[in-house]
Amino acid sequence: MGASTKSHELNPGPLVDESHLFDFVVKQGNGVKGLADSGLMSLPRRYVHPPGERIDRKQVIDASPYLGAPIDLSMLEEEKNKEKVMRELCGAAEKLGFFQVVNHGVSLEVLERVKEAVHSFFNLPPEKKAGYLKGRTPSPNVIYGTSFSPENEESLEWKDYLSVRYMNDDEAMQFWPLECRDAALEYLKSANKMIHSVLSTLLQGLGEEVDSSAVNLYEEAKMVNMNFYPICPNPELTVGVGRHSDLTAITVLLQDDIGGLFVKVEDKGWIEIPPVQGALVVNIGDTLEILSNGRYKSAEHRVIASSTKDRVSVPIFVTPGPFTMIGPLPGLAEKDGKPVIYRQLLFGEYQNNFFGASHQGKKSLDIAKI
């Protein structure tokens, strides 16, 4: 790192008081949006990540050997093409754990509306957003925050978020913020059929009989996260989201056109998942890796912010309920000729462990290993 870059790290500017930064960003609810709006000229020390945790675009490898063309989900409805699409979905889940889908049943208008709604919420005055901080929010299912687990992190992540867990329409209409409520609900409901279809297909692809009620158990809980990555003065020194895998069965992600999502190819390096207009990104989560006894890959991924534009993304996290047991499907290990590598555990146990630490790559899976 050159001397000029180092001086930027150490002199974030007169508008940032490092000693009060945590209170300003986390406790008062200003978030990194508040930092960006303060006229920040360079990155505060608390956001500078060790070199090994940063994303060096020069070391990103070509995605084409690992990431296939977007998969056309409309062909799942056609008997003659169903087998082909199943092979594509299951092959992508085994190879990388990330793939893109098109003709998924969520209209371009719905996707655009939810992206606009994210900007609307995060452009609210800080005091209005702070009304949804943990401890202040009118509902435990609606949480505004910043970074991932700021109390446990040595280096903070350059991201603010609003998480809304869907319970029922009445609860959503009462408690979800008006600025994004209708668009987020429309996005979730439009995606529900596709979520069920993709998860059912992936479970069927394991070759085990999984009835519809079992699929419903694994997709029982759904949460929409609205992520906001403000313009960052030194994105090369920090991360928007650190290295992690998701705890989900599957995650469905809407990216905007800015890019910045990177996925680890085991033993090879990192690739970028390029934005494709109208496409959604689907990734395998830890729950499905456990259910498949490791056949499907819950890929490690991370995000970089932009120095020129605010970036947004909107994942739908699809998980079992806390009292659902997760573990390799019966008979799968024997059929694959492999040892059982994961134990049976309550999803709630896994979830509590996942959120009890900072992002640490795929270490979150250790608790489930035999």
UniProtKB/TrEMBL annotation:
This is Uncharacterized protein. The lineage of its organism: Eukaryota, Viridiplantae, Streptophyta, Embryophyta, Tracheophyta. It comes from the Eukaryota.
